[in-house]
Amino acid sequence: MQYWLFKSEPDEYSIDDLKAEPNQTGRWDGIRNYQARNLIRDQIKEGDLVLFYHSSCKNVGVAGSAKVVSAPYPDPLQFDPESKYHDPKSHPDQPKWFSVDLKYDQHAKSFLSLSKIKSLPELAEMVLVKQGRLSIQPVTEKEWKFISQLIKIS
DNA sequence: GCCAACGTTGGC
DNA sequence: GCCAACGTTGGC
């Protein structure tokens, strides 16, 4: 079992949007950063657990949890000329960008803000704290357990 | 392969 | 809207 943190701008796609999807399951697409792509393509597995993080908004922080419910597969938006995520350099026989499906799990009963995260020595080593700008990042089991307690999810 | 210029992310 | 910290692009 592995743990991850996925960032999303809630104006674009919030944890409530995920919950409102049919079967509470949505496609995590639009990843266009190689570090994040490598994680999603090579390391993320069906069944892994995800902290759903809201970025670039009034309240930045961990809003809840979700579960990976598919293997990685090519992000269809890269082949869609209408999409802002269209990548004309990517070809279907060798796709550059990947997606997974996420299923809503729980809302944080207590929202965990970034400032709170930064104030906690137990979370000082999080990628979120050390390297701000990565949209998909690994979370250690220790961090996951600590955060689960803080936000009161099980 | 280096590196300057430019673009993006994301907190504040 | 600002700006720091990256990542990407492209000339050489």
Automatic annotation (TrEMBL):
Phosphoprotein listed as a keyword: yes
SUPFAM superfamilies: PUA domain-like (SSF88697)
Entry-linked Pfam families: EVE
InterPro entries found in the cross-reference section: 5hmC_binding (IPR052181), EVE_domain (IPR002740), PUA-like_sf (IPR015947), THYN1-like_EVE (IPR047197)
Keyword Phosphoprotein: yes
UniProt cross-references to Gene3D superfamilies, sorted A to Z: ph1033 like domains
UniProt entry keywords in alphabetical sequence: Phosphoprotein
Domain EVE: from-to ranges: 2-149
Protein origin, superkingdom: Bacteria
Descriptive protein name: EVE domain-containing protein
Organism: Psychrosphaera ytuae
High-level lineage: Bacteria, Pseudomonadati, Pseudomonadota, Gammaproteobacteria, Alteromonadales
